[in-house]
């Protein structure tokens, strides 16, 4: 099946759904604990010494840490970790080897029996208008379970943001919108509008039933549970509308009573 193409000239034709973290917290995965190489090494050492340290079910593990500490993957699986959230950050530029390296990492994790959830950041200077299609294709080829896409947001107090401001690339100073769901910095190789449209397009593609089916588990035994998850995800918009109606009905009832009295 041919994947849809991204058209940077096509306007967004319907409201954009709120960004919700795959970690389940309202603040997004960027606020979750991120395991780096130090945490992963400590976990591996504690496991080797016969201790039972907590597994990172409620954490995000940096892809760089996993690439640097491959033996820790077996320790994670032996501890009972069967799902892992990986902070991939970026696939890099079109001609860089990073996408292949990350693909090998995902294959290793899946061979150890782990479901892999991915978190990516879009809008860095190496990203161009082709990065959205490349990312969607890579995610589907690697069969990632769930994916969170965030727009790149620099540290508001760092030297980098001051340099970007001097280049007139900082779009606004409203820190409430420095949340991964709004464009803060105009990237080097595309407009801010193209970045936002591409981010919305990629999110919608990866949330579609077609994409979820292409990412189905290779093991047939895992298929029933996966189909149940896909069906539940497909009902998410209906559940959201039902909750909105529930919040609206009391106010609507009060309004009708007041109108009847008048």
Automatic annotation (TrEMBL):
- Protein keywords: Iron, Iron-sulfur, Metal-binding, Methyltransferase, S-adenosyl-L-methionine, Transferase
Task: Tell me a GO biological process for this protein.
Answer: methylation
Q: Which GO terms describe its cellular component?
A: cytosol
InterPro entries (UniProt xref): BchE-like (IPR051198)
Needs which cofactor?
A: [4Fe-4S] cluster
Q: Which GO terms describe its molecular function?
A: iron-sulfur cluster binding; metal ion binding; methyltransferase activity
Name of this protein:
BchE/P-methylase family protein
Q: Which organism is it from?
A: Enhygromyxa salina
């Amino acid at each position: 099946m041919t994947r849809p193409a991204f058209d940077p000239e096509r306007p967004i034709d319907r409201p954009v759904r709120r960004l919700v973290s795959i970690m389940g917290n309202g603040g997004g995965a960027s606020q979750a604990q991120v395991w780096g190489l130090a945490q992963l090494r400590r976990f591996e050492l504690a496991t080797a010494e016969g201790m039972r340290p907590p597994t990172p079910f409620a954490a995000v593990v940096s892809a760089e840490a996993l690439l640097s500490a491959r033996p820790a993957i077996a320790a994670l699986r032996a501890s009972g970790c069967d799902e892992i959230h990986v902070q991939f950050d970026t696939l890099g530029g079109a001609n860089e080897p990073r996408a292949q390296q990350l693909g090998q990492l995902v294959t290793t994790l899946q061979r150890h029996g782990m479901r892999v959830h991915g978190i990516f950041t879009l809008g860095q200077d190496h990203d161009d208008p082709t990065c959205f299609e490349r990312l969607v294709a890579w995610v589907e080829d690697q069969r990632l379970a769930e994916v969170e896409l965030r727009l790149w947001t620099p540290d508001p107090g760092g030297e980098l943001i001051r340099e970007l401001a001097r280049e007139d690339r900082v779009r606004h100073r409203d820190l409430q919108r420095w949340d991964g769901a709004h464009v803060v910095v105009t990237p080097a190789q595309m407009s801010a509008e193209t970045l936002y449209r591409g981010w919305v397009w990629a999110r919608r593609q990866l949330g579609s039933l077609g994409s979820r089916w292409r990412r189905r588990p290779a093991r047939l035994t895992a298929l029933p549970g996966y189909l149940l998850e896909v069906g539940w995800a497909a009902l998410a918009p209906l559940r959201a509308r039902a909750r909105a109606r529930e919040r609206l009905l009391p106010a609507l009832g009060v309004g009708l009573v007041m109108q009847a009295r008048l």
